[in-house]
Design a protein that fits this description.
Elements (H helix, E strand, L loop, with lengths): L4 E3 L18 E3 L4 H14 L4 H15 L6 H16 L6 E2 H15 L9 H14 L5 H5 L10 H5 L3 E2 L1 H17 L7 H13 L20 H14 L5 H14 L6
Antiparallel strand pairs: 1-2, 3-4
């Protein structure tokens, strides 16, 4: 698999940490098979329910999507707590609709263009692709399907809309990378639905990149630059680690997680 990196000249850690992406770091455009395998093994160990195994799973997830910085450990510890509580049934799972609503609310605060926002269709397509590479991340969605009424693709139709904290964290990091670098993710909801409908009609494989295969891109497109700029302007509001942690808590509460 071809890989590349992209450096962005912004303050290193001040981008809202709840989105698990930092503009000032080097963005890895394609994760190695070793990274996938590490996450899969950590997810299997976490089935034990032991807090140390849950923390190992959280570390694997966070290491794959969050660059090094002052808030990385905070994100990991919060994810460990949430994932552990989820396993014990102490918190409610978050639905795709709720996550999309929270992400788009934050996107509005950033002044993000419409193609920089997400939708339930885009999120579902992304989840299906992740499930094919790392099924352990989404295994609960198939064990407990809620009969989502959607497209006639097997995974699309049988995957539950409910997500674990670990899956949400991984998806947020991955989604931001795709929004910045992948033209197939730089579409409005209407444009995506049009492309999706055409893909179904022509019996092409249904995935988030239906259309030209542009999963990897070395340079930002104009749309990618606009998305980056919206993230960068918004990040200037955060002048301390405490302020960034407040944003993490605020986003978690939008999802229904009561995090101290």
């Amino acid at each position: 698999m071809t890989t590349g990196t992209l450096r962005m000249p912004h303050n290193k850690w001040l981008v809202p940490a709840v989105l698990t992406m930092t503009l000032g770091s080097t963005i890895t455009m394609a994760q190695s098979a070793g990274t996938f395998q590490h996450i899969r093994e950590a997810a299997r160990h976490a089935r034990s329910g032991a807090i140390e195994d849950t923390d190992g799973y959280s570390r694997a997830i966070v290491d794959s999507v969050v660059p090094d910085g002052p808030v990385k450990d905070s994100i990991r510890s919060r994810l460990t707590e949430l994932q552990h509580c989820h396993r014990q049934g102490l918190i409610q799972p978050v639905t795709e609709e709720k996550l999309v609503k929270a992400v788009n609310k934050l996107a509005d605060q950033m002044g993000m263009p419409e193609y920089g926002k997400t939708s339930t269709l885009e999120l579902r397509l992304l989840r299906v692709e992740v499930s094919r590479v790392m099924p352990e991340i989404t295994e609960e969605a198939f064990q407990n399907p809620d009969h989502w009424v959607g497209p006639n693709n097997k995974e699309m139709a049988t995957m539950s809309t409910k997500m674990t904290p670990a899956e949400i964290t991984y998806l947020l990091g991955l989604l931001i990378r795709q929004k910045l670098l992948n033209p197939s993710f730089q579409l409005t909801e209407a444009e995506l639905r049009t492309r999706y409908t055409k893909a179904k009609q022509t019996s092409k494989p249904i995935n988030a990149s239906s259309g030209p295969h542009t999963f990897l891109s070395i340079e930002l497109s104009d749309k990618g630059k606009n998305i980056r700029n919206s993230l960068g302007v918004y990040s200037q509001r955060f002048t301390s680690i405490d302020r960034a942690n407040e944003e993490i808590s605020a986003f978690a509460k939008e999802l229904g997680y009561d995090v101290p």
